[in-house]
Automatic annotation (TrEMBL):
The chain crosses the membrane at residues 21-44, 50-71, 78-96, 102-121, 133-154, 160-184. GO terms for cellular component: plasma membrane. It comes from Neorhizobium alkalisoli. InterPro entries: Acid_resist_chaperone_HdeD, DUF308_memb. Keywords: Membrane, Transmembrane, Transmembrane helix. This is Uncharacterized membrane protein HdeD (DUF308 family).
Length: 189
């Protein structure tokens, strides 16, 4: 593909996006509304998230087991069946006790955030001769603080953590699409 073709493709894509700015605004508003609705009851949103994750894992397990029957060699077939059964068992645990699962997931998230923060701080210290290393250091410290807050308030935080994360994600996506749509509108006129 030549540069001229790539630029004309990009230009036509931008024209199409600008012509459809209203859809981005509508999507943004819808996501903000859904995020606000999710924020009303973080516990219910957390349980719904766990059940959704479990259902998708169960579907994945079924597909993996089904795939085992088209595998040509017995080792691959055995691996797929065992792997699918474990994945299905994990989804069954989530479905059987979504509250305990949410609490356990919160513990794992807290521990992983602390670990990620430690690695960011180590990376910042290693790269302290580079511009912007302080931002990476600050990010690592903030990540450790959030992880420790989750761990120190565990297990009660687990009852609303996934719901809060989903709510924040929906709101940020909503405001992002809204801002993008409005920026396209200004560019279109």
């Amino acid at each position: 593909m030549t540069t001229i073709t790539a630029n004309s493709s990009l230009g036509s894509a931008l024209k199409t996006a600008r012509a459809n700015w209203g859809w981005y605004v509508a999507l943004g508003i819808a996501l903000i509304i859904v995020g606000l609705l999710a924020s009303i009851n973080l516990f219910a949103t957390t349980i719904a998230s766990v059940i959704y994750i479990a259902a998708m894992m169960l579907v994945g397990a079924a597909f993996q087991i089904a795939h085992a029957f088209v595998a040509r060699n017995w080792r691959r077939r055995t691996f797929d069946i065992i792997s699918g059964l474990f994945y299905g068992a994990a989804s069954a645990v989530l479905i059987f006790d979504p509250i305990l699962s949410a609490v356990d997931i919160a513990l794992v998230i807290g521990a992983l955030l602390v670990a990620a923060g430690i690695f960011r701080i180590a990376m910042a210290i290693r790269d302290r001769s580079k511009t912007g290393w302080g931002w990476v250091l600050a990010s690592g410290i903030a990540t450790i603080v959030v992880g420790l807050l989750i761990l120190l308030t565990w297990p009660s935080v687990g009852l609303g953590l996934l719901g809060a994360m989903l709510t924040i994600d929906l709101l940020f996506q909503g405001f992002g699409f809204l801002a993008f749509g409005l920026a396209l509108r200004r560019r279109a006129s």
